[in-house]
Amino acid sequence: xxxxxxxxxxxxxxxxxxxxxxxxxxxxxxxxxxxxxxxxxxxxxxxxxxxxxxxxxxxxxxxxxxxxxxxxxxxxxxxxxxxxxxxxxxxxxxxxxxxxxxxxxxxxxxxxxxxxxxxxxxxxxxxxxxxxxxxxxxxxxxxxxxxxxxxxxxxxxxxxxxxxxxxxxxxxxxxxxxxxxxxxxxxxxxxxxxxxxxxxxxxxxxxxxxxxxxxxxxxxxxxxxxxxxxxxxxxxxxxxxxxxxxxxxxxxxxxxxxxxxxxxxxxxxxxxxxxxxx
Amino acid sequence: xxxxxxxxxxxxxxxxxxxxxxxxxxxxxxxxxxxxxxxxxxxxxxxxxxxxxxxxxxxxxxxxxxxxxxxxxxxxxxxxxxxxxxxxxxxxxxxxxxxxxxxxxxxxxxxxxxxxxxxxxxxxxxxxxxxxxxxxxxxxxxxxxxxxxxxxxxxxxxxxxxxxxxxxxxxxxxxxxxxxxxxxxxxxxxxxxxxxxxxxxxxxxxxxxxxxxxxxxxxxxxxxxxxxxxxxxxxxxxxxxxxxxxxxxxxxxxxxxxxxxxxxxxxxxxxxxxxxxxxxxxxxxxxxxxxxxxxxxxxxxxxxxxxxxxxxxxxxxxxxxxxxxxxxxxxxxxxxxxxxxxxxxxxxxxxxxxxxxxxxxxxxxxxxxxxxxxxxxxxxxxxxxxxxxxxxxxxxxxxxxxxxxxxxxxxxxxxxxxxxxxxxxxx
Lengths: 278, 427
Hints:
The complex is a heterodimer of chains A (278) and B (427).
Chain A: H1 2-30, H2 37-41, H3 61-73, H4 96-104, E1 107-111, E2 118-122, H5 136-142, H6 161-170, H7 177-182, E3 193-194, E4 202-203, H8 225-240, H9 244-272
Antiparallel strand pairs in A: 1-2, 3-4
Helix pairs in contact in A: 3-8, 6-8
Chain B: H1 14-22, H2 25-33, E1 38-40, H3 49-70, H4 78-88, H5 92-120, H6 128-150, H7 155-168, H8 175-183, H9 190-219, E2 237-239, H10 240-265, H11 295-303, H12 313-326, H13 331-334, H14 346-368, H15 375-400, H16 410-415
Antiparallel strand pairs in B: 1-2
Helix pairs in contact in B: 3-5, 3-9, 4-5, 5-6, 5-10, 6-7, 6-9, 7-8, 11-12, 11-14, 11-15, 14-15
């Protein structure tokens, strides 16, 4: 009885699935999905290597400082970095005094010490990076109806994030003639910018790194667009995970200990079972 | 315990004797995981996964309690409190990564544990209750994991919660009021986040309770084994301590090594990047996918694309998704074969390796893929096999299959002969 019921229930589900499959298969063969410009022209991020890659990866503080400079001078005009505090910058090799000076260069929302009213005050190391816009509405109004996303976690919030950031910053170009020929309706709308590394190909952000020498590096590195893009991507790896280096270093110690403990455990297992065939 | 030759607990120290009279907790431990619990001597490594599951549950509870100390279940700050934990709390990143990857590790272990049960017929008499409690644990795990994934209040947290609670809306008549009651609103918001946190903290301890019952029920007949032949004499067994403590011990080491490799070197590989974007009800992600351990069931849900007679496609999907797990409750009565182990069931074994395992693999793959062709067709075929396997093939095969000859006893299977066999009455 149980089995007859079970077979009936089984038939119910399998027939329903056959029905779905049959109609789906029919639609699939008779009406092939239309090709889209996104599908044909979207590119995966370029291959790019960072010092922090791999199991032994370490941050290159020189590069992170350059990347921070790019963020400060270019990106911070529109993008917030809300999970990072000025004090965190000491991890990039800045001294306490330098961090104080960097923080004081920003104004942050605070309280006027004389009147007690809300006011913009110079930042201190304990403050977080201020947001460039008061709220999303202000951000939209200033940016062609797009909200510039916070960058703190950007390299974790996209597939292959660091390479994505680098590719996007160096990926702006004119729309290919072939794309316009096959998909005339996919012409980049006014106010947007074509970039094949962006999911839907058209991005509200104008090319932020427009020419070599846009930022003047203090360490003598030549600030090509490629170099600036790489540096700011490296900086954003750090902002997304300041503990990355510690994580990998701790990992080796933990794996070493566990390997040792597991070998001991295996030996005691062999020893205990030596008199028992199993 | 269950066998007459089980070692008896004999405390020698006066304090332990005193303790044994007042509260025989050491005796309970001795009889449960000590020298007083005889276990088949022939268990293979698939039998380590129950113990590993217990380790995973412990990892989740310990790391979870620490995470909860720094978390605030409020939609305005939930995302930020997690980032605060990771960045500013001492070793917070380690607890966070261990907890997030710990959920994945728990499901890897539990899937192997469950499929061990399928292959070796562990669900059969006299262990039906062990199996039923195990399925209850699995359902509780799924609920706990789902609600835990909502807590960081990232994009996938929000949209995952919206999709999954939306499933209840497919139930006729009561669906929509039920959905609103579950969420405490029309969409996931502060009320939902708060109650999910409350339940996410509660359910693991409910799981602990059911695990105790699961192990208790297991200790009545004792563990099954790869031959599926029940224990007959003392030479079939070894005491749990030291034999299986040693074997489980080194398996825990190997497991911890792999787990640490994931936590320290690939901590984000199994997560979705979108969950590092704060929840935004106004912006739908391109692909809403649950965590990988839900993919087979998510694929089944999405496989039903057409209304079936008067039943809407969405309701069919919901019925099938829950049915796919509920069917496990009935296995002990659907599989009538007197032989437990798949090793002695040539036909069943073929369906297991060439049917169920590939179907599960396809469902895993398609559940994580976009809801587009050809993935939907693949998942329809795989889901079709899945239901046919448990509800049609298993009852029929188990009735008509001719099993291979079984060894007389575990001892014979291990040593090639069983000296105690002549003394035992012929059954």
